[in-house]
From TrEMBL:
Positions contributing to CTP binding: 103, 113, 148, 162, 166
Name used for this protein in its record: Coenzyme A biosynthesis bifunctional protein CoaBC
Organism annotation: Sphingobacterium litopenaei
Keyword set includes Hydrolase: no
Keywords (A to Z) from UniProt: Decarboxylase, Flavoprotein, FMN, Ligase, Lyase, Magnesium, Metal-binding, Multifunctional enzyme
Chain's gene name: coaBC
Reaction catalysis annotation: N-[(R)-4-phosphopantothenoyl]-L-cysteine + H(+) = (R)-4'-phosphopantetheine + CO2; (R)-4'-phosphopantothenate + L-cysteine + CTP = N-[(R)-4-phosphopantothenoyl]-L-cysteine + CMP + diphosphate + H(+)
GO MF: phosphopantothenate--cysteine ligase activity; phosphopantothenoylcysteine decarboxylase activity
Shown part of the complete sequence: 178 to 402 of 402
EC number: 4.1.1.36, 6.3.2.5
Length: 225
C-alpha cells in the first residue's frame, strides 16, 4: 500500500486535461486557429497518468498522439472543447486547462466556400465561452484546478488577475522573456501563481520536465486536501 502510494500518488484520481489549439470555422475549408502545438498539455497528461491518475485528454487539432492508457477526445472548436469539459468537470479531481482556446469565433459559418469578391472583406466575430472561467466557478474544494497564461506585458499582474477571475488553484505563467520558451518550442520557463502558496519561479526546462514540476504541484495540493 505504502510503496504503491509513493510510486503512484494520484492513484484513484480522475484528471481532465485540455491541450492544443481550437479551430473556429469560417466556411467548410477555412478556419481561425493558432500555433499551439499541444506539446505542453500532452506532456502533462502523460505525467498525470504516470503518477497514477486516470486521464482524459480533450485535445484540439495537433500532430500528437497520447499513449493508449489516456482517453483522448478529439475536438475542433472552442464550443466543442467546452461541451467535452462541461460533462466531465464535476467528476474530475484534477483539471489542467493548457489549451490555447480561441477567444473569438465567427458569428456565422458559411455553408458554402466563400468566393473572392471585393477588395476588403470583414468577418464578424463573437466571444467564445471561457472554459476555465466558466467551469472554475463551480469548482469544489476537493478539486485541483490549473490554468495557463501567456502574457507579453505586465505578466505577473495579468496572471494574478486570471488566478482570481477563473477561480483557479494555480496559474502557470509562460514567460515570454526567454527565447526558448512557449509556443512551438520544446522548452518552457514557468512561474506558478497560487492563492495558497504565492509565486514560484522555475528554470528553463524541457516541456517534459515542466510537466513533472506541475505534476508535483498537483500531488502536493491533492495531499493537502
Ligand atoms: N481559456 C479557456 N477558454 C477560453 C480562453 C481561455 O479555458 N475561451 C483558458 C486557457 O486554457 C488558459 C487560461 O484560460 O488556461 C488563460 O488563457 P488566456 O488566453 O491567457 O486568458 P484569457 O482569459 O483568454 O485572456 P486574454 O487572452 O485576453 O489574456
Ligand atoms: Ca485568450
Amino acid at each position: 500500500q505504502n510503496h504503491l502510494n509513493t510510486a503512484k500518488p494520484l492513484a484513484g484520481k480522475m484528471a481532465l486535461v485540455t491541450a492544443g489549439p481550437t479551430y473556429e470555422a469560417i466556411d467548410p475549408v477555412r478556419f481561425i486557429g493558432n500555433h499551439s502545438s499541444g506539446k505542453m498539455g500532452y506532456a502533462i497528461a502523460e505525467e498525470l497518468q504516470r503518477l497514477g491518475a486516470q486521464v482524459t485528454l480533450v485535445s484540439g487539432p495537433t500532430h500528437l498522439k497520447a499513449s493508449e492508457a489516456i482517453t483522448t477526445i478529439a475536438v475542433r472548436s472552442a464550443q466543442e472543447m467546452f461541451d467535452a469539459c462541461d460533462t466531465r468537470f464535476d467528476s474530475s479531481d484534477i483539471i489542467v486547462m493548457s489549451a490555447a482556446v480561441a477567444d473569438y469565433t465567427p458569428k456565422e459559418t458559411a455553408v458554402e466556400k466563400i468566393k473572392k469578391k471585393a477588395e476588403d472583406f470583414t468577418i464578424e466575430l463573437k466571444k467564445t465561452t471561457d472554459i476555465l472561467g466558466t467551469l472554475g466557478q463551480r469548482k469544489s474544494i476537493q478539486q485541483t484546478l490549473v490554468g495557463f497564461a501567456l502574457e507579453t506585458n505586465n505578466e505577473l499582474a495579468h496572471a494574478q488577475d486570471k488566478l482570481r477571475r477563473k477561480n483557479a488553484d494555480f496559474i502557470v505563467l509562460n514567460s515570454m522573456q526567454d527565447k526558448g520558451a512557449g509556443f512551438g518550442t520544446d522548452t518552457n520557463k514557468i512561474t506558478v501563481l497560487s492563492p495558497h502558496s504565492g509565486i514560484k519561479n522555475y528554470d528553463l526546462k524541457s516541456k517534459q520536465e515542466v510537466a513533472k514540476d506541475i505534476g508535483q504541484i498537483i500531488v502536493e495540493h491533492q495531499q493537502q486536501l
